[in-house]
Structures are given as structure tokens and as C-alpha cells.
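At this stage, I wrote out one protein's amino acid sequence and its C-alpha cells, and that material follows here:
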Amino acid sequence: MTDRKQIVVRALKSAQGADTEVYAFFVPGGDILDIADISRIGRDEGKLKGFQRGKIPSHVKSIVDYLDSGPVLFPNAIILALSSEVQFKFSRGTRPDGMLEVADSGTLTIPIRPEGKKAAWIVDGQQRSLALSQSKNQSIPVPVIAFVSPELATQREQFILVNQAKGLPAGLINELLPEVSATLPRHLAVRKLPSELVNLLNKDPRSPFAGLVRRESNRDGDGVITDTALIEAIKGNLRPPFGALSQYRRDQDDGSDTDAMYEALVLYWSAVRNAFPEAWGRPPTESRLMHSAGIRAMGALMDAVMLRADASADAEKEVRASIARLAPHCAWAAGSWSGLDLKWNEIQATPQDINRLRDYLIGLDRELARVGR
């Protein structure tokens, strides 16, 4: 930690969005972590905090090796969010004729504070910033683009949008999406509502999935089901016209009946848990019901079961009966699938196996429902 109380740099100031201040400047690479915190993703009493994934040592080391290899070019900009405490002073000077009036020049002052209390947060460039702090080449000038926003929601939005093409872990994006209110690209927007429902399923004590979903913020916890598998299953349930949850969906998620969706999920998956107690809550290596293939296939089965249940006099009774009829024909944790010619642990999370298991379960459910046994 440096003894300086602030850094002052030459900067360009512009504005984007709803008059959000945006700055462009250079700082020595070794100073990035003096002015900016890394906001790690985690949970505090159930509430999501931060947004950054953990350090990737191999990635950091490869950048350090490059920086220490001699005179190098390092033009990749770090993106920061700044608190409103930063101060900008305009510099006077002549403006040439025809100059584009898109930014003003001046000096930007950023306070230097202890970790956890800094006036800036890294939105993009965490691994690069860590590498710059460990490099022998501490003085290399690094470009920085920074916007003023102390709001965590805005920082998360920018983190997702900036990194969407960079191959971030799906689980990290999935967990952050429910916290984002900005308009998202379509491929991210379709994951937001399912991820919000997964959050509810994981934290509600009456949910069959309570504490069983592994999310980025609790990777070392007791979760045995990947959130991606459950999110994909729910995405299928939301597809019109036959998705079990599509009847509660509106064009805009704000108008959707998420309470009804959640109750339908609890009803169906509680029946699944009760029908297969020996396979529920175990690691996927011990139970293919908790495996991505099992979650995806049983999620697809939900559409047919709930459609029939909605037309019955007692929906809960019909769901329980449907799953109970299937139970003797399933081999989630032992034995073999007679209709698939596979041992229980030979089912893998491949599209081929998921589709085969899905089609088998749906066809068997249809046949058993027809003969009433």
C-alpha cells in the first residue's frame, strides 16, 4: 500500500447514457490496485454481493511473464467504476477549428484508500491488474476507461455486457443476471427469469432444491446440482405454447406471474423428490437424477405432466401419481434402464443422452397415463 493520499492524472472527460461521466486516462500499471478494489462475488446472509470471479493464477502468471519479457506493448484498457468523490478540473487552452467536441481535457484526482474502501472498482481487467501489480515493470503506462457510478447494479450491468463475449463461466453470468435491470442482449435476457427462479428454489426452505444448487458465490458449499442445468430446464418450461410455465409468461418479464411459476416448480419437483428419495440430494456421481442429464430430462417431462395436471380436478394428486407411475421404470442410482439399454451411470451430459432419456421418459409417461398404471 502506497503512502500517497491521491493520484492526479491528465484525463479526457465525456458523457454517455443518462449524463454518466466517462473518463479516459493513463496510469502506471502498478498503481491500478492502489486506487481500485476487486469486488468479488459472494453472499452475505443470502444477499448477493460483488460480481468478479476468483483469481486465475495461470492467467495472471502468463501476463506477468509477458510483462517481464522486456519492452512490451500493452494497450489493453482497464475499465473502472469510480465513486463520485473523484474530482475533475478543466484545463484551459485553444480549440482548433473543426475539432470534434466530444470530450474535455483536464486533470482527474482519485483518492487512495485502504482495501475495501477505495474510490474505484475494477469492472474489466481483474487478471491484468493483478499481473501488473506483480510485474517488475510497474511503471508501464496503462490505458484506463472509467465511468462514475458507485451503484453496484450499474457495475454489474457493465461487467456482464463488457464480458459477454469473453467466455466467462456460465454460472457467474447466471447468478448476476437477476440483479441486472438494464436492457440485455436477447441471449442473456432469456436466462434472467430462469436464474431468478433458481435463486428462489435454492434459498426457500420449502423448496425441494433448498441448498442443493451450486452457484458461483457458493462453489465450496453443499450444492450438488449445477445451476446451468436447472436454468436450461426452466428455459424449456417457459417456451410457448406447451411449456409448463409459458401460461404465466408475458411479453415483458415484469408482467409475468413469477409466483405461479415458482409454485408450479415446487409442486412438480417436490413430487420428483418424494418419488425418488434414494436418488435425491446425492452427488451426480452417485445419482443421475442430480446429474445435468437427469435434471434436463425430468425438466422436459414437466411440460407433459403439468399440462395433464392442469386439466384434472386435483393437480397435486395428478402430478404425484404421474411421477409415481414412472418410478419403477427408472434407474437413477442403481441398475439399468431397460428402455435405453444403459446402466444407470452410463448416462452422460451429452445432447444425445439427454435427448434419449427425455424422449424415453415422455413416451413412457404417455403410455402409463393412457393405461392408468
